[in-house]
Amino acid sequence: MKQSNRKDSFMENYQMSRPGCRPYIRTCGMSCQGKREMQGNPDRMARPYRNPHSQTASAVSGSGSMCNTPPATKDCNCKMPGTTGMNTEMLSHLQYLEPAMAYVPCQEFTTTFDLPYALSVGTIFPQLCKPFCGKRGRRP
Amino acid sequence: MTNSNPQKQLLNRINEVSFAVNDILLFLDTHPCDKKALEYYQTVVEERRNLMKEYARNYGPLTVDDARYSDGSTWKWMEQPFPWEKEGGCR
Hints:
heterodimer; A: mainly alpha; elongated; disordered N terminus; B: mainly alpha; 2 helices
């Protein structure tokens, strides 16, 4: 079969917000500026998971980072007292997050690789080029 | 990848640019208002369009959309080997 006959399949598979599909979540889910609620009908607008019984978790994982909104990490007020450095700050959120939920920070468009290199490493984005070689992060 | 065969070189560049188109497409799915990303999309999709046209003119069409850029006197679609074949086609 010739490749071209299905050349648009990538795009077709990425139709989102179609009727009958699960709502497309257009937020980071990690924004801390966002005690702000999303506008609109809550049944139609997807929102990050939050535990209705936990006020703390609600404040930490509030919604609010829509398109054009700066990512949460820029002016995040969730910094825990006594934490220094990126790694510890990142980990300081852990106790407020729900277990068994995955959190992925927003990606920003910065630079791109040269295209031959991009194809060989599988991404055009340097931010996403993470060759996990099993060398770091091993337990001693 | 280095290759002295100009047809393979062109096909390789098409693969690289097409990959960039697909990757920026994924980014735009989640960042539909990002101006830099939209500009990047325009750049790579334009380059892809030109390369596909160039390939069709010189070696035969890769997609049916490009078939019109090949020599119009005969139908070239089945005359060339598919890109992954070293030889073949109904020649």
